[in-house]
Every structure is written in structure tokens, then in C-alpha cells.
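User: quick one, fold this
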Amino acid sequence: MPTRVYVTPNAKQARVVKVSEDYFEVWVDDRAVGSRANKRLWEILAEHFMVPKSRISLLRGTKSRNRTVDVIFEPAENLTS
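Assistant:
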């Protein structure tokens, strides 16, 4: 499911705020120099959604504050008795 993300780099602390079902504001506690903020964004999103970083992909907005990412969640395991 595509998720829209508004990124604020160079924040005092990292945090994620859910604005709506598919829109989040993310404060990144690193500067936007040499893709440092992008790497930190993936770490923050992976921690927030509790998925590995490899499960998050950028769909749109590499150098923009408005980005679209795709988060792939693990399918639920079959519970059998």
C-alpha cells in the first residue's frame, strides 16, 4: 500500500506522526547531506512499522520533502493446531 510521507530533515529528535491512514509526517534527526537523511528515514520508518529496511521502497520523491513509499508487511503465518 503506497504511503505518503512528509520529511523534515535536521530535526532535534526523530519521530513519526500519523496524519491520516496513508499520510505520515517524519522528523529526521540527521542532515540532508550525502543521503544521510534518506538512510536515517529508512531506519525510522522500519522501526515505526516494525519491518526490516529491505521491506520499504521509495516510489516517488527522492529529493523532495513529499515522498511516496511502499511498506511491505509480512503475511500472517497460518495458525494451525
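User: anything notable?
Assistant: The chain has a mean pLDDT of 88.
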